[in-house]
């Protein structure tokens, strides 16, 4: 099983600041990496797939990068609606999620 | 509107059974693979099961093999998860999620399953 490790567990950021979330895979997943946003009481929402492709309707302030085992999600200027938990997921070999990064207001 | 709506959750005793349903609308259900994903209270996401568009390929996570059965009825635009021999650790919100060229792009709102005596 491919293990996905996200860091940090919690990221405290002020509105308007840049946030970078990291995700590491225990073995290469090529570019088969997605990011999801989840707010309390809601289902996850797909943000990014294939490492760097934004899903429909996702603002340009969200961007993804990386390859192989190291990936990142960057939110260029945090808006109030961006404070949430973010999960990475690999779909190269079965499907596994990271444990999540909570982005909170500083 | 593209939509998935889960139902069938509830409170069940350990060892009991429950059948979850996921009703799809707004897209051609029969052309998409589907998944079940669960989230225990206060925890992260865990993939549970996968079914191909014509049910020819099915996968399960190890912890539910032999206890859960995924199925679909393309004529009814519906996905199912039959859960038997339920354990405390199966307590979670269960989501169905559409899969395809774009992975897990549509999710239902989830249905809560509580296993407790």
Task: Give the helices and strands, then pairings.
The complex is a heterodimer of chains A (106) and B (117).
Chain A: E1 4-7, E2 10-13, E3 19-25, E4 33-38, E5 45-49, E6 53-54, E7 62-67, E8 70-75, E9 85-90, E10 96-97, E11 101-105
Chain B: E1 3-7, E2 10-12, E3 18-25, E4 33-39, E5 45-51, E6 58-60, E7 68-73, E8 78-83, E9 92-99, E10 106-107, E11 111-115
Parallel strand pairs in B: 2-11
Antiparallel strand pairs in B: 1-3, 3-8, 4-5, 4-9, 5-6, 7-8, 9-10, 9-11
Compact summary:
The complex is a heterodimer of chains A (106) and B (117). Chain A is an all-beta fold and 106 residues long. Chain A is built from no helices and eleven strands.
Structure description:
Chain A has 106 residues and is an all-beta fold. Chain A is 0% helix and 50% strand. Chain A has strands spanning 4-7, 10-13, 19-25, 33-38, 45-49, 53-54, 62-67, 70-75, 85-90, 96-97, 101-105. In chain A, strands 2, 4, 5, 6, 9, 10 and 11 form a 7-stranded mixed beta sheet that branches. Chain A has a 4-stranded antiparallel beta sheet with strand order 1-3-8-7, with no helix packed on it. The mean pLDDT of chain A is 97. In chain B, strands 2, 4, 5, 6, 9, 10 and 11 form a 7-stranded mixed beta sheet that branches. In chain B, a hairpin with a 4-residue loop joins strand 7 and strand 8 (78-83). The N and C termini of chain B lie far apart (39 Å). Chain B has 117 residues and is mainly beta. Classes of the chains: A mainly beta (106), B mainly beta (117). At the A-B interface, strand 4, strand 5 and strand 10 of A face strand 5 of B.
């Amino acid at each position: 099983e491919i293990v996905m490790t996200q860091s940090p567990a919690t990221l405290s950021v002020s509105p308007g600041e840049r946030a970078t979330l990291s995700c590491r895979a225990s073995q290469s997943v090529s570019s088969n990496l997605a990011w999801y946003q989840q707010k309390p009481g809601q289902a996850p929402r797909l943000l990014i797939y294939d490492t760097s492709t934004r899903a429909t309707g996702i603002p340009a302030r969200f961007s993804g990068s990386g390859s192989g085992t190291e990936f990142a999600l960057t939110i260029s200027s945090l808006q109030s609606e961006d404070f949430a938990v973010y999960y990475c997921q690999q779909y190269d070999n079965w499907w596994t999620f990271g444990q999540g990064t909570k982005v909170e207001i500083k | 509107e593209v939509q998935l709506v889960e139902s069938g959750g509830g409170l069940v005793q350990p060892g009991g059974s429950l059948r979850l349903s996921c009703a799809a609308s707004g897209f051609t259900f029969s052309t998409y693979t589907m998944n079940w994903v669960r989230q225990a209270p206060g925890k992260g996401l865990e993939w549970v099961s996968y079914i191909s568009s014509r049910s020819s390929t099915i996968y399960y996570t190890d912890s539910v093999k032999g206890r859960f059965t995924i199925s679909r009825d393309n004529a009814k635009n519906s996905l199912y998860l039959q859960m038997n021999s339920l354990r405390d650790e199966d307590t979670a919100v269960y989501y169905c999620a559409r899969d395809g060229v774009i992975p897990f792009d549509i999710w239902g709102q989830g249905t809560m399953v509580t296993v407790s005596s």
